[in-house]
Amino acid sequence: MLGILALILPLDLASTLSPIILAITVVLLSAKSHSKEKIIAFFIGSLIIGIFVTILGYNLGQKALMGDKHSEPSYMVDLLIGAFFILFAIKSFFSKERKTHPREDESGKKILKWFLFGIIVSITNFDALFLNLTAAKEVAIAEGITQIVKFFLLCMNLFFFTLPITFPILMYLLFPVVANRVLAKVNNFLLKYGKYIIAVLFFIFGLIFLYRGLAIFS
Description:
The chain is built from 9 helices and no strands. By secondary structure, it is mostly helical. The chain is globular. It starts with a helix and ends in a 5-residue tail after the last helix.
């Protein structure tokens, strides 16, 4: 249990570094009209993507278990994931952070638009998608834990995937006076340094998976 937690918890925590989604959430929460409907629709859209990616990652892990966890295909998957993470780390380091500014003055009746926007923004949030997918795969192939524990770990993956939305909501509910100021500082920090943190984390995870995959040659 501690072993799988030590592996997937850093993956889950890294998936929360999504300044674009955080910024959109703050804008929606501070909107003058229909803010509740908008943020709920945006959250549901993101949640659907999170569920889909979690199920996909778990199924990939289950397919790996149909053979031998230490078989050649399993090692090849780890090699591919490791190589991909290293390449993504390099890309993240040199990329420019996207800036999205949803307009606040649009009609609040177009809730479907915000639902679809939640889907689109989440499905293009590649770093969080890859991290969540990998974490779900690791849960599937984990040994020595029950199905109930695996279900709990998958729910934890989903919780962290949606945290850039749920955290601001909780902040506005519990601390409405300071929420805007605190979240603005958090978002500015992520916009400035988030890509470097993501690059370092992807590089570390890439080395871990490459090391596991290279065991095929031992």
